[in-house]
Amino acid sequence: MAARPKLRVLCFGDSLTAGYASMGCIYHPYRLKLEQMLAMAFPDMDIESVDDGRPGDTVKFGFLSRMQKNWNPLPPETNSNCPIADPPRKKGDESYNWTIVLGGTNDLALGVKPEDIFAKLQEVWDIPLRRKSKVLALTVPEVGIENGRERMDARRNKLNDLIKGYKKDGYHVFDLNTAVPFFAMSESDREAFWDDGVHLTPDGYNLIGNMVGMGLVKILEQERAANPPPVKKRRVFRDDDKVFEEEVGDPTSLDQGYVVVRRKDLD
Length: 267
Known about the structure:
Layout: E1 6-13, H1 15-18, E2 20-21, E3 26-27, H2 31-41, E4 46-53, H3 59-70, E5 98-102, H4 105-109, H5 114-130, E6 134-138, H6 149-165, E7 171-174, H7 176-179, H8 187-193, H9 202-226, H10 263-266
Parallel strand pairs: 1-4, 1-5, 5-6, 6-7
Antiparallel strand pairs: 2-3
Helix pairs in contact: 2-9, 3-5, 5-6
């Protein structure tokens, strides 16, 4: 019996990937809903997802070394000062088919230039891409802060335009900023999905998982359609097409002919 194909996904980023909510009292990563979406769409596959989200981490100063650890077969060092430990890796672990990257919110808050964030993101993406893992880059969602909103929006939009405009084999983009807005939501939806204007509620992280899941499912279905599995050829046996003398006659008459069953009739 043939083994079921596997789909392993790494969800990588900061607190939005970790599912940080209620000032750190709750962690509800979006990968939980993402995995459910993938399992429903592809029941013939074994789905496994891992989240490596570290609250407070930045693309410029922390992402690169952490991404490298995810592709190192030896167990990474654990930072005891962080509530989210590095994902467990042991020698012999399989690689990831997909790596979903979300980061930049903390960098923008610290005043890092969009161009500098984007340059470092390219280095981060390149680690899985060089190892034949496809990358799904998420755009940076807006934050619900009115003070300085226009300037912040301009810098975030600049970064998101760079993310959406990047082209490389195996690289894909999902526009999370548009899919899960803050200001465009109704007041009731903001109360349900957003926690503090930067982080989301567990329902909000489920919403992200739904949205990103639908985006990834669409990409995977397009790939399947473009590369259908080979059709297994029917094995041909000698005399399969030969007409035997016993077959001639009236099949409704009991005294004429025999019933001949060929191997192809059983396939």
